[in-house]
Amino acid sequence: MSALARDVAVAGVGFSDFTRHGTPEARRLAYTAVHDALVDAGLRGDDVDGIFEYKFGPESPGAQDTARMIGSPDLAAFADIMASNPSGLGGSLAAVMAVASGVCDTVVAYRCMTRESGYTGGLSGTSAPIGGREQFQVPYGYGGGIIMNMALKKSRWMHEYGRPEDDFGYIAINARRWSALNPRAVLREPISMDDYLSCRTIVPPLRLLDCDYPVNGAVATVFTTAERAKDLRQPVVLIDCMTYATGRRVDWIYIDDFLHGATVDCAERLWSRSSVEPSDIDVAQIYDGFTTVTMSWLEGLGFCGMGEFGDWVDGGKRIGPGGDFPLNTAGGQLAEGRLHGVGFLNEATLQVRGQAGDRQVADAQVALVASGLYPQCGAMVLLAGDR
Amino acid sequence: MTEVDDMSRLGDEVAADARPVPAPDDISRFFWDAAAERRLVLQRCAACEQLQYPPDVVCTFCQSEELVPTEVSGHASLYSFVVVDRAFHPGFVPHLPYVLALVELAEQPALRMVTNVVDARADELSIGMPMRVTFERRGEVTMPMFRPEADPQ
Known about the structure:
The complex is a heterodimer of chains A (387) and B (153). Chain A is α/β, with parallel strands linked by helices and 387 residues long. Helices cover 32% and strands 18% of the residues of chain A. In chain A, helix 1 (26-41) packs across helix 2, helix 6 (166-179) packs across helix 10 and helix 9 (263-273) packs across helix 10 (291-300). Chain B has one domain. Chain B has helices at residues 3-16, 29-36, and strands at 41-45, 51-52, 67-71, 75-84, 98-105, 112-117, 130-138, 141-148. Chain B has a five-stranded antiparallel β-sheet, with helices on one face. In chain B, strands 2-1-3 form a three-stranded antiparallel β-sheet. In chain B, strand 7 (130-138) and strand 8 form a beta hairpin. The radius of gyration of chain B is 17 Å and the shape is globular.
């Protein structure tokens, strides 16, 4: 029995192609990923009674569009979840709750992005006066989405813990070591610490290679009851536990722990609900929209002490192929492509199923997925059904 | 130069500044009104006595609805900063590079403000150094800014 009211399993994972060029139709990308996930599970649109997707805006077709395309007879629950959630994993977290609660039996979650939306999210040309809480930030040039926040974190991090910039580089380099083994990844050339430390800055000290890589693509996941999953096409992958976290006095800036945000709250609740210990994790998929985020998560989740990532990572050996803490084994958003968290869940599922090809971690039975960042955290533990 | 000439030149300068300005509202107006008088005024909770920023409709520490506008010293320390050398809004293009900073006010731990550092060269700045509030006019609004404090008290 998991920590959920009704045991839930990942039944299928699906992908569109990920591309660096061109302007493919978002509807086709989303349909392709969802259809692929249903085929993977051995299910049809007719079986689907719930759909949740995560979006920034009109870049992605909504849950109802997708229901129509796949031929769902009726949706018992659905939502288009906006950008304040734990990134793309928000759709999957909602899907798990829908199945666990008994509201739905078979639910699809997906995220669809195009480079166009990935590029322009941080730019603003408005001349209108700024209202709301942003009136205390944007007039000071705190723009570019969350880029300034990430740059301020990196700067503070190096000062507070007296660490070199190399610590962040290990995460960027690790992404390419794994993506070299993943045919779906868009950036597969290896990079060195010199490459990292000499690449251009976006807002110094934040560098290009600290930032994830926008792609055209979509990723989908199908969830159903653990009971039903036994009769489907794939090995059963169970959701052991899940949680969101926001922390108290929810914010990106004006909180006590500026460097870790709610990753600590998320970890406390996750581990208190999980049937496994942090030391049982065989493979971890942790959000890397920026290298700062991955470092916050690893420390917040308790894999190393605060500020100790740089020592813990052991020159990158620990998290790379053959290391004892395989991290972001598909290359993550830094190298596989920015699919906002759902890519991590699908990779975790493939690893637990033993279907991750050249990058398969031997005997991976317990996987951690942590998505989103700071006041919008979400995490899951996945277990092999025959464990 | 006549007074009229001077005013028109001032007008040009203001029009040329295309950086966004805050839109004071029912919650924030006291803050911007005080800034126009070159005073830094935050909300203090009458119940738990915590200062909070940005302003809100309740105390986000204890949920009391009794918030008292309270002037603070303007003393702070530099919590983090970055030198922004590309614009994410066209209004900042003429102002590049600029220093975007988080300062921590002296009155309370983790009481931070997003601000710009002015009257200093970027290579003179270091995290932890003492800062002091100053004020800068932009259009109709006066904005609190921070500069290194020459003589920390």
